[in-house]
Each structure stands twice: as C-alpha cells, then as structure tokens.
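Researcher: Next sequence.
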Amino acid sequence: MGTKNKSQNCIHILNGDALLEQFPRDLKGASIVFRECLVDGPVTGNSLKELYQKRSAFFAQTYQVCTPIEYEERIVSEFNKVQKIPNGSEINLWFEDDLFCQVNCWFVCYLLRDRKDCDLYLVRPNNQSPYAFSVYTETELTELYLQRQVLPAPTLLAPLWQAYATGAVKQLTLLSQQLPNGYSHVREAVSAHLSRIPTENRLGKPIEVLKKIIENKETESTELLYQEFQKQLPIYGFGDLQIKHLLIKFLSQQ
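Model: Next structure:
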C-alpha cells in the first residue's frame, strides 16, 4: 500500500449516477461512475474489447436503453478512466453489498489489478441499509467514507471476477471462503449467485421467487411485482431492467 501524501491523487469510483447525484460535496477528489450491471447478461470475452462489444449488444437488444455509440461514450469511457488511474493514487470503491454491486466491484478490481502503490478502500453501507446508499444523507455518506475499509490490493478481489466470468463456480466459492475477516458480504453475494444457477430440479432462486409472486397473485401491477421481488430478494440488488429480463426468461419457459 502506498503512503499518503498531500499531492496524492484521490479517486472515487461510484456505482451508478444516483450515488453521484447525492455524493457529498465536501469530499475531495475526482469521481468515476460505473454504469454497468455485470450481474446480468454475457460476461465472457477473449479481450476487454470483445467483452464490451457483447455488453453493448446486450444493452441495445435486451435492455433497449442505449445504442452501441452511447454505450461507448457513457460506459466504456468510464472503464478507460479506471485503467488510466495513476500509480500511487488513493482509490475509494463505493459499492453496496448486494450481488449486483459486488460483481461490478470485482470487475473494477480486475481493471485495477496492475496498479502499483495505491491506497485502496471499500466504502460500504452499514447494517442500517447494506444494499442501498440511497437512504443516506450527504452527512451520513461522509461518515461512511470516514469508516471506510482498507483493501490491501485489488488482486484480493480481482480473481472473483475471473471466476465469475468463466462460470468457475467451485473456484468462486473457494476464493470467497479464503478471504480474510471483514469480507462476509462477499461470501453472501457469492452464495446468492450460486442460488440463482438453475439445476435439473430447480429454476434458480430469483425465477422461483418471481414464479411464486405471480402464482400467488400478490399483485397484477408490473411495477408492484418488481417492488415485491426487490423486497423479497434484496441481496440480488436487481433493478427493473434485470427483473424484466428475468420475467421474460420465465414466461418463455412456460
């Protein structure tokens, strides 16, 4: 870990624009916004370029939220900023504890794996709301920053991304179990990921919960269905786009 100095470059990597909008104005440093959702869709590629091409196509075809050009301008450009962070910088990773955010965090650490002499920190919500920064005020976010957790090196979490992306579930489980104290949230996220993988006898927990909500007719409103899913499975951190994709998968199997 690098030694802090007055001229040290300070970077905040934020998981989403919502956090950027509420980010404490009194905290110094530049912000990089992570706008991906690697918890859903293709994550393999022989190179980052190939991965980005697959993700761009997924966003355009499945989510229908941005064109390939917009993906490059809004998402890949931020990834490139991460890779250009100077050695010796202070890097603060603002990611919640749910699977959605944790997968993104692992990927950021993968991008940072060659950075040298950096001071890395995890800024995480507390037990009051482990899956959402949105409930915190600016003052409370500043307090979370002051209580940040030292990350000895990006290589502690980077292998999790590689195991996740290649579907090496046994390796992913082993890596999470080998993490030191203070990383139980990672183990919980990995456990949630394993629970969503379909087997011969199970559809995977997210689809099973979605199926139960629909069968019990807990709501006929799509919006309320999404909210009920998020209420029952907050560990996944799925937004409307991910739940809609899940719903389409489920209906296609009927």
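Model: The chain has a mean pLDDT of 94. Residues 205-252 form one domain.
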